[in-house]
Amino acid sequence: MQKVIEKMVKTQTPLTSCVIRDEYISASEIAFDCIFDGTSKFYPWELPKSLPKEFKIGVIVGSSGSGKSTMLKHFGLEQSPEWNPEKSIISHFDSPEDGIKKLSSVGLNSVPSWYKPYHVLSNGEKFRADLARKIKSNSVIDEYTSVVDRNVAKAASVSLSRYVKDNGIQNVVLSTCHRDILEWLEPDWVIDTDSGELIDGFFLPDQKSNLTYIAQTMIVGKCLATITI
């Protein structure tokens, strides 16, 4: 059962955005019987005071528009890897071994895809290739697993969690609208922007049921069995 560490509070200073009122806004006001003065306000959550300074994986989860990306900015800015269109994606890592480990850890299991340039990959492959290059201490990743199949998302989350924990990587923060990957990631903490709660990392190995552990093993095995060479 989840353990709530802290109930979050919203900031007193809103984020605002302003637009010019025009005939399109006026027409929609009439159509939907509403009034808009040209200014939108959003009150984001304040950063929880009980967050640990050192951790392996933290997750910000919530529905669209709940403030996930705004919260993520407290931990840093997401890096956008640059890709050379004349080089294969595996050629962009520190070493061949580094590329093999990281591409495998995010569920990009088609070896022939490793030899392609980034711009010809599918959207799902591009997401996983980008993720593989972002995995390092203090990295932040927005919209985690938003463009991949849910079984692939779960398998990639298991592999990513293991890679982070086995290689001494720290303070990785992911933002996602998908709750189905939480138990597969086994985060140290979860910020829920829907409920406004900081939740303890309750998906730990000693707390995981045997059925979940078996399911984890099966889904990763099934994913690895689809490796294309």
What does this protein look like?
The protein is of the alpha/beta class. 34% of the residues lie in helices and 14% in strands. The chain contains eight helices and eight strands. The protein has helices at 23-32, 68-72, 96-105, 111-114, 123-134, 150-166, 182-185, 210-224; strands spanning 4-7, 15-18, 39-42, 57-61, 140-141, 172-176, 189-192, 197-200. The strands form two sheets. The chain has a six-stranded mixed β-sheet. A two-stranded antiparallel ribbon has the order 2-3. α6 (150-166) links the parallel β5 (140-141) and β6. α3 crosses α5. The longest helix has 17 residues, at 150-166. It is globular. The N and C termini lie far apart (42 Å). 29% of the residues are buried. Residues 203-211 have low confidence and may be disordered.
Please identify the structural class as seen in this structure.
alpha/beta
Span of the ends, CA to CA: 42 Å
Q: Shape from CA axes?
A: globular
Unreliable sequence segments: 203-211
**Mean pLDDT over the full residue set:** 88
Helix content: 25-40%
**Strands of the biggest beta sheet: in what spatial order?**
1-8-7-4-6-5
| Gyration radius, rounded | 20 Å
Give the count of helical stretches: 8
Biggest sheet descriptor:
6 strands, mixed
What letter string, H or E per element, gives the SSE order? EEHEEHHHHEHEHEEH
Q: Provide the β-strand percentage band.
A: 5-15%
Classify the oligomer. single chain
Summarize the structure.
Helix content is 34%, strand content 14%.
Descriptive labels:
8 helices, 229 residues
Helix/strand layout:
Blueprint: E1 4-7, E2 15-18, H1 23-32, E3 39-42, E4 57-61, H2 68-72, H3 96-105, H4 111-114, H5 123-134, E5 140-141, H6 150-166, E6 172-176, H7 182-185, E7 189-192, E8 197-200, H8 210-224
Parallel strand pairs: 4-6, 4-7, 5-6
Antiparallel strand pairs: 1-8, 2-3, 7-8
